[in-house]
Amino acid sequence: MRRLRAWSVPKRFDAPSENEDAFAVNAEATCFAVCDGATESFASGRWARGLATSFVGHPPLDDALLAGARHDYERSFDQRKWPPYRRNAYRRGSYAAFAGLMIWPRERLYAVQAIGDSICVLADGPDVVSSFPLADPHQFNRHPVLLSTNDHANVVDGLHLLRGASVWSLGRYGFHRRAAFYLMTDALGAWFLADPAAAIGRLQAIETEATFAALVTEQRAAGRLHRDDTTVMIVDVGSWR
């Protein structure tokens, strides 16, 4: 049985429109995505939403899909009256981390495509089976490579980010009776990996956005969760109930 819960909390509760995270799911609940727009880049929340929507609409994310997302992003602006500083910021590009999950329920297989520091964790009850692309909370302190609206920035060491084998993780979740996937943007991912069993217990108990927001507030106040936009998608695919 499949069950989905998803919530996003902004870094500032008094400015929800500034949330630069995004999540999306397709109608069949077989494709899921979370994206995290880089705060320092131009209109990154819009770029994150475009990437998430594009992935779940026609996965996986490839050159053509990325070009389509970039085209939609560019068309969403009316630049005719922009001042020079805004044009310059736009030309520097928007950047976002991306993690997408595809599942095949009949075969109980999965594939994760990810770039940056948004992650997808597969757990069996309280035990982590895999975490991709990062598996250690200390890895979140580095500057990740992100997907950009400027496609030349998506080429690293002569290879386009979408063409590298390192952006993929494949497997079978059918071996795990209480299998669940947790897709998270970086702040929650680092918190989760610091104490996975405790994090899974807290997240599995949540049923509403208000309760998730309360958890985020509590953990920020305790200094355990970085104050940033905070997003999770919980996809239960095992026998939790």
Quickly list its features.
241 residues; 13 strands; 30% strand; Phosphatase 2c, domain 1; 6 helices; six-stranded antiparallel beta sheet; alpha+beta; five-stranded antiparallel beta sheet
Description:
The protein has 241 residues and is of the alpha+beta class. The protein has helices spanning 44-57, 63-75, 84-92, 186-194, 196-204, 209-221, and strands at residues 3-9, 21-25, 31-37, 95-104, 109-115, 119-124, 127-132, 147-148, 155-156, 159-160, 168-172, 179-184, 230-236. Helix 1 (44-57) packs across helix 2 (63-75) and helix 4 crosses helix 5. It is globular, with a radius of gyration of 18 Å. The mean pLDDT is 95.
Strand content: 25-35%
Distance between the termini: 9 Å
Within CATH, the superfamily carries the name: PPM-type phosphatase domain
CATH architecture: 4-Layer Sandwich
CATH topology: Phosphatase 2c, domain 1
- Tell me about the largest β-sheet: 6 strands, antiparallel
Report the strand count. 13
Query: What spatial form do the alpha-carbon principal axes imply?
Result: globular
Chart the SSEs and their pairings.
Layout: E1 3-9, E2 21-25, E3 31-37, H1 44-57, H2 63-75, H3 84-92, E4 95-104, E5 109-115, E6 119-124, E7 127-132, E8 147-148, E9 155-156, E10 159-160, E11 168-172, E12 179-184, H4 186-194, H5 196-204, H6 209-221, E13 230-236
Antiparallel strand pairs: 1-13, 2-3, 3-4, 4-5, 4-8, 5-11, 6-7, 6-12, 9-10, 12-13
Helix pairs in contact: 1-2, 4-5
